[in-house]
Design goal:
Radius of gyration of chain A: 36 Å
Order of helices and strands of chain A: EEEHHHHHHHHH
Order of helices and strands of chain B: HHHHHHHHHHHHH
Number of helices of chain A: 9
CATH topology of the largest domain in chain B: Cytochrome Bc1 Complex, Chain D, domain 2
CATH class of one domain in chain A: Mainly Alpha
Distance between the termini of chain A: 93 Å
CATH superfamily of the largest domain in chain B: Cytochrome c-like domain
Number of strands of chain B: 0
CATH architecture of one domain in chain A: Orthogonal Bundle
Structural class of chain A: mainly alpha
Oligomer: heterodimer
Helix content of chain A: 40-55%
Distance between the termini of chain B: 49 Å
Mean pLDDT of chain B: 91
Shape of chain A: elongated
CATH topology of one domain in chain A: Cytochrome Bc1 Complex, Chain D, domain 2
């Protein structure tokens, strides 16, 4: 490549532009500057960046960085935004905090607020297990119906939500159905007999060969203490009613045999450890009003 | 010839252009990255953050292997709506032992920085096996092989050595006991739970999938759930003083 030349700029007769004076092997470069408006915006941005360095945190120095004249800080900023939100929401939150759950429905404004507040908290925290509408799924109870494991009064629902079920919290709901098969308390045949008996209580189909008397004996000995003589359950122990048509773990014989063999003893976190008391209150109201509260 | 007209040397010599470009980019790096390593107000130490237990680390490796980060970030940003939804914004200290870190902004699913303790182990297992069984509308894929595959803990000590080389303060004792600690935490064998808790305070020791006792083996799901349940639980934000850390 031959050396490029640097000549005096001249007018290019074909385009009417001046050249820059750069000349590579006879190929010259036209001087076609950026539009004025663009350049001025560019210079203005540079000037603003200098102002910005002084106003906001910018330059790293030896031990710390410059903090900026207005003292802006992303952590302070979020604290202020949250504080502003709390000021806005504060009066309603205070009203909710000081109102008995049973009295919320007498205050239309508070009722709207509590519904909305509870519904948001439910979607974020509870829906993954209990379903978006509270309908539940296998292993996660339906909260819409009036069949409650631990009781459907406001107090009972509130306690279950705040302290959870079978977790590390000292006040959590607790009971443990034995794993009758796994721990060798009942043989496979006995489990089958007692399951058929339970099915007969719920008026589910059982094979005609099933020995229901043997099943009833096992039931009275091993199950009635929790599920009740008649199978109607015990909310003190979270033992479900076995005579209705609602089955947390499925109503197939195989599902029921699996429950009695291995036990389920499912758990729910203690939401009082994660959410503030007012949110728990809104949730209690929300769940109680889903349809089945006593 | 003025200084501004000396660009000819760059335009006619590619090697000079290459090094010129390198110098310009390095200035950006030196100004923006290097200070983060020494400035006092970018380094915070917070009580409670500890390195991952060997089982959690194994779970973390599975998390990375399966590409969970393609849909989940692990950083609650300091924005009002995020703090409202997920809880306290993430502190730099919370990911100081994360190598590689799992921040990011790609959120097809929710942020996981504070998911520890939010759900039960059973839920995580159900959700990994078949997310739509618990969240019908989800787009998260199923990972049923995790609960079927035995966890490979042969090289768990080596994993700790790698992290130690990168600056995570694992002691030689921790490396030596890594395999024991993993089986202890997953309750495959209760070899030394006191030692485990001393080395890794507040570690959850339990049968995460509920199948360890029956099958006599740890699965990849055990490790992954142990990891998920540890996320965001290191710091007690009831005790943490926000204003002390605003500098």
């Amino acid at each position: 490549m031959a050396d490029s030349e640097h000549n005096e700029p001249r007018l290019d007769p074909v385009t009417g532009y001046k050249t820059t004076g750069h000349d590579w092997d006879g190929i010259e470069e036209l001087n076609h500057p950026l539009p004025r408006w663009w350049l001025w915006i560019f210079y203005a941005c540079i000037a603003w960046s200098v102002v910005y360095w002084f106003i906001f945190p910018a330059w790293p120095l030896v031990w710390s960085a410059t903090g900026g004249l207005i003292g802006w800080n992303s952590r302070t900023a979020v604290d202020q935004e949250v504080a502003a939100l709390e000021t806005n929401r504060g009066p309603m939150i205070d009203r909710l905090t000081s109102t008995e759950i049973a009295a919320i429905k007498d205050d239309p404004e508070l009722l709207d607020f509590t519904r909305a507040y509870g519904s948001i908290a439910f979607k974020e925290n509870c829906a993954p297990c209990h379903g978006a509408g509270g309908g539940g799924s296998k292993g996660y109870p339906n909260l819409i119906d009036d069949d409650w494991l631990w009781g459907g009064s406001i107090d009972n629902i509130g306690h279950t939500i705040a302290y959870g079920v079978r977790n590390d919290n000292a006040d959590s709901r607790y009971s443990e159905m034995p794993a009758f098969g796994r721990d060798g308390l009942l043989s496979g045949a006995e489990i089958r007999e007692v399951v058929y008996y339970v099915r007969s209580l719920a008026e589910l189909p059982v094979p005609s060969s099933a020995d229901l008397t043997a099943g009833a004996e096992i039931y009275a000995r091993d199950c009635a203490s929790c599920h009740g003589e008649a199978g109607t359950g015990d909310q003190e122990l979270g033992a479900p009613n076995l005579t209705d048509a609602i089955w947390l773990y499925g109503s197939d014989t195989a599902d029921m045999i699996a429950t009695v063999t291995n036990a389920r003893n499912s758990s729910m976190p203690a939401w009082g450890e994660r959410l503030d008391p007012t949110t728990v209150k809104a949730l209690t109201f929300y769940v109680h009003n889903l349809g089945g509260g006593d | 010839m003025s200084l501004w007209e000396r660009h000819k040397i760059f335009e006619t010599n590619s090697l000079v252009l290459f090094f010129g470009a390198l110098v310009v980019i390095a200035i950006g790096g030196i100004v923006e990255i290097v200070p983060l390593f020494y400035l006092k107000n970018t380094i915070e130490t917070v009580d409670g953050v500890r390195p991952y237990t060997p089982l959690e680390l194994a779970g973390r490796n599975i998390y990375v292997r399966e590409g969970c980060y393609n849909c989940h970030s692990q950083m609650v940003r300091s924005l009002r709506d995020e703090v409202e939804r997920y809880g306290h914004y993430s502190l730099a200290a919370e990911s100081m032992y994360d190598r590689p870190f799992q921040w990011g902004s790609k959120r097809t699913g929710p942020d996981l920085a504070r998911v520890g303790g939010k759900y039960s182990d059973t839920w995580h297992l159900d959700h990994l096996n078949a997310p739509s069984s618990v969240v019908p509308s989800t787009v998260m894929p199923a990972y049923p092989w995790l609960a079927e595959t035995e966890l490979d803990i042969r090289y768990i000590g080596e994993d700790l050595i790698v992290q130690q080389t990168l600056g995570v303060p694992y002691t030689d004792e921790m490396i030596e006991t890594a395999r024991r600690d993993a089986v202890t935490q997953g309750t495959l064998d209760a070899l030394d739970s006191d030692g485990l808790l001393e080395r890794y305070p507040n570690a959850n020791i339990r049968d995460f999938t509920g199948t360890v006792a029956a099958t006599g083996r740890l699965t990849e799901a055990d490790a992954l759930i142990a990891y998920l349940q540890s996320l965001g639980t290191a710091i007690d934000f009831n005790l943490y003083d926000d204003s002390a850390n605003i500098r």
